Amino acid sequence: MKLTSMFIGASLALTATQSQAEIQIAEIEDAQAVQLWWSGGYQCANNYWHNNPPMMQGGFCTLNTGTYTYSGKKISMWRFNLSTIPEAASITSVKIRVEGSATWGQQGNLFKVGMKTGTGALTVQDGEALYNQGEIFAQPAPSEPMEYELETTHLIEAQGTTDWLVVSMSAEYSSSTAYLDTNAALIVEYDLEICEGDFDGNNAVDADDVLTLIDAYGTLNSNYDLDGNSFIDVNDILMLVGFYGECE
Fold it and tell me: What pTM was computed for the model?
């Protein structure tokens, strides 16, 4: 009778809380880094791509030949693959980690970070859409990493659609231009609804999950512990039975 009461109590108290939000953090390295120069001539050539550039910079490029000054827009772009972030994830925070170039630039020089949904391959149209867009930040000291908080909107738009995000570094024509290292990383924090007791991730608590828990019975195993005491015992079994069925 006592065991039955425990089972009923566990079922009533916990069936409605099968799913709970769990905070996850993903660190995504850039998949590609390029520089694009356009709207100019000579070294400021139209649609000039610099794959694997030695540094990232943006704003403008100029070349004074003695008789004529060529000028054009310059932008640097990173491409990120978001496919590791679950479609069901709720994005709460996005940061980009960049590093000041040890070769050029001075701490405090300004640059803009813009974002847009990507198509998997960087294009001139990406550069045109992102030039001089985004939030203004200041360059970190040479070889010093810095994390900058970004808006989540564009990442959410890309999530589950193309799975690609383009992040740009540019500046106004007349402003100072920062110099950054080519490597960048997105730090994405998100909430993910998980189903308690669904150990195999099939969106249901079923016989396989029960057998898994029985196999761990009597051990210290935080992976299958449901009541928070790190020990797999009868309370965990009762809670799992209370969760039995399809996840909400």
Answer: 0.72
